[in-house]
Amino acid sequence: MTSAALRLTAPTLVERRILTLARHLEAFVERRIAARAERREIALDILREQQARRHDPRAVEHLLAQMGVPRR
Description:
Elements lengths: L2 H7 L3 H40 L4 H11 L5
């Protein structure tokens, strides 16, 4: 095998830098995806909690009575 053939098998400096850039870009995108998934999960938990709460229909009347507002 000649030395010219050996040089063709190894990635060039530009190719190595492009591969490094691609790895960094992939890590950046994966972190963004994970962060977005975490925020979405938190939002869904908050929404589920809000929907699970039962509101007392007399609570409004009670608060209005405490404020001294006449009943409806």
